[in-house]
Amino acid sequence: MKVPNVLAIGGSDPSGGAGIQADVRTITALGAYACAAITLLTAQNNGAVTAVWKVPGRRVRAQLETLLAEVSVQAIKIGALGSRSTARVVAEVLEGLPELPVVLDPVHRASAGPGLLDRGARGVLLERLVPRATLLTPNLLEAASLTETGLPGDVAGMQECARRLLALGARAVLLKGGHLPPNEAGDVVDIYADSSRVEELRGTRIAGGPFHGSGCVLASAAAVALARGETPFRAALAARQVVRAGMEGAVSLQAGGGPRPLWPLARLEGGRYVDER
Ligand code: PLP
Fold first, then answer.
1. Among 11, 77, 156, 274, which has the highest number of CB atoms less than 10 A from its own CB?
2. Distance from C-alpha of 158 to C-alpha of 3, rounded to nearest angstrom
3. DSSP output for 38-104
4. For a pocket test of ligand 1, which of 216, 218, 247 has the largest count of ligand atoms closer than 8 A to its C-beta?
5. In the structure, how many helices (H) and strands (E) does the chain have?
6. Please, which residues bridge with residue 191 across strands?
7. Is 194 helix (H, G, I), strand (E, B) or coil?
8. Among candidate residues 122, 111, 134, the one with its CA nearest the CA of residue 88
9. Taking the alpha carbons of 155, 157, 160, 161 in that order, is the dihedral positive or negative?
10. What Å distances lie between residue 42 and 50, 106, 121, CA to CA?
C-alpha cells in the first residue's frame, strides 16, 4: 500500500508542541506523508502565547488550491482556523472533496490564553464544518461552546453533550474529558459517539502534565488512521494510544519550564503503542 497523504490545516507554533508543527511530526511518526497549510502564525513557547497573526482567507485559499491542484490527499485534519474568511475558504474547499475523511479539532483558544477562532468564524464552524466532520474532537470547553450548553460536569453530562454534538451533524464525536475534575479512580474519561454507539473510553491520568498540544496530536493521529481506511471508532482508539505514548514519552524532551509537549516516538513501533511497563 502506498504511503497516504494527510493534509493538516492550522496554525504555526514555533515551539513545536502544538499546531502544524505537532501535526506534521505526528503524521510523519505514524508513517504517513504530511502536507500543511497555515491559517495563522503565533509567537509562543510551551507556556505562553504572546501574539497571533491570522493569515487572510485568500492566502489560505491560495495555499490549498495550489496544493490540491497537484497532490491528492487521503484525509484532512483541521485545527485552529483564526478568521471567518479562512473558515469559509476551508468549508468551500471541502465542498469540492465530499468523500474525503475530515478530522475537525474545533480549536477555540490556546490553553495559554489567546483566542485562535474569531467570533464570526464560529457560525461557519457550526453550520458548514461540523456537519462535514468525519470525526469531531472537542474538549469540554469547545463542546460547551458548540452546543451552547453549560460545561459538562460528569460522565453522564459528557454523554449527553456528545449526543448533542452528533445532532449538529458530525458523523462521529470524540469528546475529550481531560478537563473534567479528577474522579476517585484517578482516570480520564473520553466519550466516543456515532449513530450506532456511545462509549466511555477510560484511561489512567498520566503524570507529568499539564501537556502542550495533546489535542493536535490526537486529531492528527486520528486523521492518519482515517486516511488508512479505518472506521472513526478505530481511529479514535488508535489516536488515544498515540496521545498516551506521547505523554509517557514527554519526559525524554528538553522542554522549558512550561507544559510539556508530547513525544510519541518514544513508545511507538511501526505506528503502534508499545507498553514497556
Ligand atoms: N497554538 C496553536 C497554533 C494551536 O493550534 C494550539 C492548539 O490547537 C495551541 C497553540 C495550544 O495548544 P495547547 O492548548 O495544548 O497548549
1. 77
2. 36
3. EEEEEEE-SS-EEEEEEPPHHHHHHHHHHHHHH---SEEEE---BSHHHHHHHHHHHHT-TTS-EEE
4. 216
5. 8, 13
6. 175, 200
7. strand
8. 122
9. negative
10. 7, 17, 18
Task: Locate 182 and state its grid cell.
Answer: 479528577
The C-alpha atoms of residue 23 and residue 31 are separated, in whole angstroms, by 13
Torsion of CA 242, 126, 177, 24, to 10 degrees: 20
The predicted-structure confidence for 82-95, as pLDDT tens digits, reads as follows 999 999 999 999 99
- Measuring from each residue's beta carbon to the nearest atom of ligand 1, which residues come in under 6 Å? 10-11, 13, 18-19, 42, 79-80, 107, 110-112, 116, 212-216
At 38, is the pLDDT very low, low, confident or very high (cuts 50, 70, 90)?
Answer: very high
Backbone angles phi, psi at 112, to 5 degrees: -75, 0
Closest ligand 1 atom to residue 11 Cα is 3
Query: What's the rounded Cα separation, in Å, for the pair 12 and 241?
Result: 24
Beta strands in 56-196 (DSSP E): 75-78, 102-104, 135-136, 172-175, 187-194
Strand pairing class (33-44; 49-54):
antiparallel
Per DSSP, 125 falls in state: I
Instruction: Give the angle 136-168-149 at the CA atoms, nearest 5°.
Output: 95
* Residues 121-130 as b or e (16 or more Cβ within 10 Å = b): bbebbbebbb
Cα distance between residue 136 and residue 226, in whole Å: 13
Among residues 61, 47, 54, the alpha carbon closest in space to that of 12 is found at 54
> Using one digit for the tens of pLDDT, what is the confidence trace for 163-217?
999 999 999 999 999 888 877 777 899 999 999 999 999 999 999 889 999 999 9
Is the separation of the CB atoms in 120 and 164 below 8 Å?
no
**CA proximity to 262, closest of 240, 238, 234, 232:** 240
